Each structure stands twice: as structure tokens, then as C-alpha cells.
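Researcher: I'd like a structural prediction for the single chain below. Treat it as a standalone chain; there are no partners to consider.
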Amino acid sequence: MSGQYSASEYKIQEAVLTIPERGIELDISSTILELILYESVNTPYITGRMVCVDTQYVFERLKFDGTERIRIDIASDYDAILTKSFFITRTLGKTKSDENTYAYNFYIAEDIFFLDVLKSVSRAYKGTPDEIIQNVLSNEFQRELKLIGKAPYQSAFSYVSPYISPLAIIDTIRRRAYDVNGFPYFVYASLKEEEIRMKSLSEMIENDPLNEISFVFSNAQNFKNVPEQQLINVESFEEAGENDTIELLLKGAVQNQYNVLNLSTNKRNKQNRFNITDAFDVGPTKSIFKKDFTIQDKTLNDFDPNVIYRVVNHTTMDELGYHDEKDIEQHLNKVKSTALVSALSKKKITAGITGVFNFNKDTVFIGEQVNLTLPQFESETKDTVTSGSYVVLETKHLFSQNKYNMYMTCSRLTQSSDDTVAIGPNS
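Model: Treating it as a single chain, here is the predicted structure.
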């Protein structure tokens, strides 16, 4: 290890391109100018992009057609090695920078993405959500499911896939899954694991943040010049939330009414409501949605912008179908789950940090909480509204010009209102 904490402590050791059909195996690591890898709690596979430079016309002779395979090994000064295999799914042309040099843009993705395009499944499934998802992963992709925390709350149910792709099945079942409090589940991939993760939003929120010392954005030069504190330095951040209140209302992110008609009992359940401000105004925290907003002398809680009707029918065998639940509370939990997923888009922040922290820690960032300390506008004073714990929903890993930076897109459902404090090396 160099003894200095910087974003440059990495090396692409190998990038082995293989075309088995043509007997080609070639290390192209020396040609890579930029490598970007993406994780998201919404996708059970890793995607990415490579920018490569070719001075020997090697790529021109290979004639890429979007089916090539590549294995990438990345190492750091901490002897940590990251190995991932991808398909080259698309070649975005080439650019001539000088007489003898061409730059190529390649889009890459894990095999799950590629296989999903090729498959269409018509099959009957029965089990709990995690059991069905594991079934699909095993049969269609030869992957294992890693359930983080408690299993979904639902009893076993039946589902028939109508000639749709395996990932469409997984997403359909995932949207059916929720925990005992109605929090949704996510099914996603991580750079550091081969298994596919399944984890509830409540588990993400309740777990302690990964970083004991908060990542801090500060313009103070004495902060940036302290080598040890470069590890926790937020190099850039932007608010990326979708503050489109109308769109969020229509998605049911604030208020929902759910009505159920059971054909087998001829009973109708009405006025089952979920309100997000009531759900999160607890103790020292409050919802990111304003509870005191009024229009026509009414609060948002008094309106029903999103009304859902569901017709269900329990069979004589008492076997639950995809849309059936044992009681009305569980039906309401489905609405709550959908609302919480939509609400995550409101309070998003993207923060860029040195990637050394990721290499140095044997942890998975995606789907976990991090502490962020962010300043008020044109100030070195902590903004207590935006600062706090966030769930990492997406990550962008950028390897470029001998530097490794990680950009985390994070969200939260609550905020605090503590007193402001100064930001600096000793704060």
C-alpha cells in the first residue's frame, strides 16, 4: 500500500476477450481508457460501458457483432481483486482520433441480461415469493438467491407466467412481495457477489450505516489535504430527486385508497387507506412529504388521488392465486409497498466518493445505508435537513485515467430537524 489514500489505487489486471466460436482469446486491458460499471436495486445484473482505443486495427479485424464475452479482473493496492464476466451487448460505432487510432464504445452486461432476451417462459409456479424467484433463477440462469434478513410475509400462492421473459416473472413476483409491515422487496445484483440478493426496504432502512464516520462534503482546504480524511470526502454531490408532486400523487406515493370485492363471499371492503405522512411521522423523524399542506381547506390526507379496485375469488380448495390475500390488511400492504417504491424517487442525492473505500471494505454498498454530511448552500454549515442516513439505490463505478471513483445515488423517506453545526476536519 502506498500510505496515501487516493482514488488512483487500482489496476485492470486483465480484460480477457473471448469468442469461443472462432477460437479467440485476447487480453485487451491495455486498450481500456475508461470502464464504467453500474449496480441498481432494480436490476438483478450488472451493466457497464467500456471505452477502448485501438492503434493496431485489432478490433477492426475482429468485426464485433455484440455476442463477445469478456472477463475483467481489477486489483487495488489493498490486494483486493474484483472479477466479473460480461457479454458485449452493443458496439456504439468507432471514432477516429488520429491517423492510426480508433476509439470504440462497448456496452456490456452480465449473462442474465443476455439470456433474458432469448427466453420466453410459460409455466405454473407455486410457493412464497422468494421460493418462486429462486426457482426462476435456478432454472433459467443457474444462479442462487441470497435472501437478506426475513423472508416475505405472504403465504404460498399460485402463479402462471404467460409466455414472458424470466426477468419479467421475477419482477412480477417481486412486486407481489412485502414484509409484515408492507415494505417492498428488491431483487438485485452486486459487484462482489455471484448470488442475486433479495432484501426488503425495511431491512435496508433499519440496518446500521456502513460508514461509522460520515462521508462529508466540504470545501475547506485543510479537510481535503488530510490524507486519512480523503477516504470520507464527498468529492461531488447533486440533488437528483423528482420533486414532481403531481406525478407522485398519481403513483400513490402519498395517499392510497384500496377497495376489494371478494366474489366467493360477495363481500366488499371499502375505505382502506394508506397515508405515508402518518407512517413516518414517528419520534424525532418526520416524513419527507409535508403534512400541513392544504388546498381548499383540506390536507393531502383528505383526498384520494389514487383509488384501486381489486376483484378476488378464493377457490373451494382455499388455494391462493396471485391476486389473493388471506385478509384485507394484506391487500392494503400491497398498496403500501407500491407507494413506498414511488416515494423513493422524491428525495434522491448522488454523492461521489473515492473508490478506495469500496475496495478497502469487504462490504456491499448497493441496498445498504450510508451516512452523509452535506452543507447548506454557499456555507460550511451542516444542512440538517439533507444530511443523515440514506439508502444506496444505484452505484456508478468509474475507472478512468488511473482513478477509481464511486457515485452513489441514495434516497430516504424521513428527515430530522436538528440544530445546524459546522463542517470541517474536526467536526
